[in-house]
Amino acid sequence: MAKNFNPEHREGPVARMIEEQTAKVPSDVFLWAALGSMAASLTLKILKKDEEALFIGQWAPSFLLLGMYNKIVKLEGHE
Fold first, then answer.
1. First to last CA, the chain
2. In the chain, count of helices (H) and strands (E)?
3. CB of 36 closer than 8 Å to CB of 3
4. Whole-prediction pTM value?
């Protein structure tokens, strides 16, 4: 059943729009955002704000994943 769901392997209009917009963002932005969230998390940890530090620190992998997605869209292109 999943095989026949999208036999042409085409992206939907929302994904296409997101890819067009994210391809305009430099990949460095995502790397700096990840590093910034780690630095902010460390700062909050030093200030004994443990819950906030964990919350902000968990953003780093998401930023890095978005950066990888951005890079793939740039290299492979969107439809």
1. 24
2. 5, 0
3. no
4. 0.73
